[in-house]
Amino acid sequence: MNMKRSFFERLSGSSSADTSFDSFDEELPVTTTPARKESRPSAAHPAPLSDDAPASEGQLPVDVHQTGGDIIIRAFVAGVRPDELNISIRRDMVEIEGSRMEREQVAAPDYFTRELFWGSFSRSILLPQEIDVEASSASAKDGLLTIILPLLNKTKQTKLRVKAG
Questions:
Q1: What does the domain layout of the chain look like in residue ranges?
Q2: Which of 60, 92, 139, 156 is spaced 20 to 30 Å from 165 by Cα?
Q3: What's the CATH number for 58-104+114-150?
Q4: What is the pLDDT of residue 155?
Q5: pLDDT-flagged residues of the chain (< 50)
Q6: In this structure, is the dihedral angle defined by the CA atoms of residues 78, 79, 80 and 81, taken in order, positive or negative?
Q7: Which of 80, 100, 77, 78 is nearest to 147 (CA)?
Q8: Taking Cα atoms as reference points, which of 61, 80, 78 lies closest to residue 142?
Q9: Residue 123 CB: number of other CB atoms within 10 A?
Q10: Confidence (pLDDT) at 149
């Protein structure tokens, strides 16, 4: 006896003792679509390099975390001199801009693989809390940029003395 397997049995590869309630009794026609050619270049066939390509700005990947009283931002900026970085800080946002330029020119046909990003990059980071702009600091060591942003203490109070004048 040739019993038709249920949709679930065909999907999972299992078998069932009771097939009386199979709602997928009809076989659907199988259609094939032509396979799309992959658009990513491979190492054997690198992407064509041209100076005519529009210059696009890269986005700098970052890690952002919080400690007890600070927000810490870290980003790899290897190959970027400190004078090529521009960091703008507001109470609720940090903007990092920079430029990484190739130090030597290599002809396009001489590349086997080209994955490094060269050119200008930027990143805007919305902060989860307000920070103390004046007490913030930035440093770069071994290609790792570290920005330390002290949290703004909203409960801190100061007393002002009134001057007689």
A1: 1-30, 58-104+114-150
A2: 156
A3: 2.60.40.790
A4: 73
A5: 36-54
A6: positive
A7: 77
A8: 78
A9: 16
A10: 95
Q: Using CA atoms, how far apart are residues 105 and 64, in angstroms rounded to an integer?
A: 34
- Amino acid symbol at 146: T
CA dist list (Å): 42 to 46, 81, 107: 6, 31, 18
Place of tokens 């109070």: 157
Contacts for 137 with CB less than 8 Å, ≥ 6 apart:
147, 148
pLDDT digits (tens, 9 = 90+) for 104-149: 888 888 888 887 788 899 999 999 999 999 999 999 999 999 999 9
Q: What are phi and psi of 80, to 5 degrees?
A: -115, 125
**Positive or negative CA dihedral for 103, 109, 115, 117?**
positive
- Where are any strands of DSSP class E within the chain? 58-59, 63-66, 70-76, 85-89, 93-100, 119-126, 137-141, 144-150
